[in-house]
Amino acid sequence: MSSERAQFFESNERAKSIKEELLRLQEEKDKYEAELKESLEYLASTPVGLDKPLLDEEGFPRGDCDLYAIRGARNRVSCRRNDLKALQERMYEKLVELQSSTHEEATQQMVADEEDRRRGLEAAKLQLAEMEEKRNVSLLTPFLKVAIVETNSPAFEAGLRSGYQILQFGTVTSTVLASQGPSALMSATAEGVLLPVWVREEDQGEPRKILVVPHRWEGKGLLGCSFDPIRAK
Fold first, then answer.
1. Residue 42 and residue 71 in contact, taking contact as beta carbons nearer than 8 Å
2. pLDDT tens figures, 66-121
3. SS3 of 198, please?
4. Which residues form a coiled coil (predicted)?
5. Which of 113, 135, 157 is the last residue of a domain?
6. Number of neighbouring beta carbons within 10 Å of residue 25
7. Is 157:134 a contact under the CB 8 Å cutoff?
8. Looking at the whole model, is its pTM more than 0.70?
9. Alpha helices in the chain (DSSP H)
C-alpha cells in the first residue's frame, strides 16, 4: 500500500473515531438536558421555584414545601448547567477537529485518486508497449527449437518445453545469430540476469514471453536445456 493510501485510511479512521466521540457526547448532553428539564419543572411546581428564599419572613424554614428536595433539585440544576457548558466546549473542540480531519481526508483522497490515475496511465502505457513488442516479435523468423529440457532446471522452472520455437533469445534474433554466430547466444546467457525468451508453441501460434533466470543447479549449464537450429525454408 502506498504512503498516500495509508495516510488516507489513517485519516478516515481518525474522522470515524471523532464522529463516534461526538455521538457519545451528544447522548451525554441529551441525558444532562433531560435531568435539567426535570429539575426545573419540579422547582417550577413549588412555591419557591429556583431562587426564592427557603426561609419565611421570621427566618424559619418554610413549611409549605419539601426543602430537602428543593435543595437537591437546585443543586442538580447548578451541576447540570456546569456539565452542559463543559460538554458543549468539548463538542465544539471535536467539531473543529472533525472539520480539520475531513479537510485533510479530502486532500488525501485527491492525492490518492491522482496516484491511482497515474498508476493507471503507467499500466496502460506498459500494456501498449507489451502489445507493440509482441506485434514486432510476431514478425520475426524462428531460428531455434527447444530440443530437451531437463526436469527442475532453470529453463523447466521458467516454463520452457521441448518443441517450442525460439523467436528471440534475449536480444538475439535470427538476423543477429546469422551475423554474430553461436557466441551471441552465450553472451545473452549471464548467470543471475533475467533472460526474456520469446517462443511460439506452434508454427502459427501466438508468441509468448518466458522469463528465465540462468543459474547454477544440480545439472549441467545455467539453463538446463538444448536447442536445435531451424533451417530456413
1. no
2. 889 999 999 999 999 999 999 889 888 888 887 777 666 666 667 677 777 788 88
3. strand
4. 8-42
5. 135
6. 15
7. no
8. no
9. 3-44, 67-138, 154-158, 174-180, 183-188
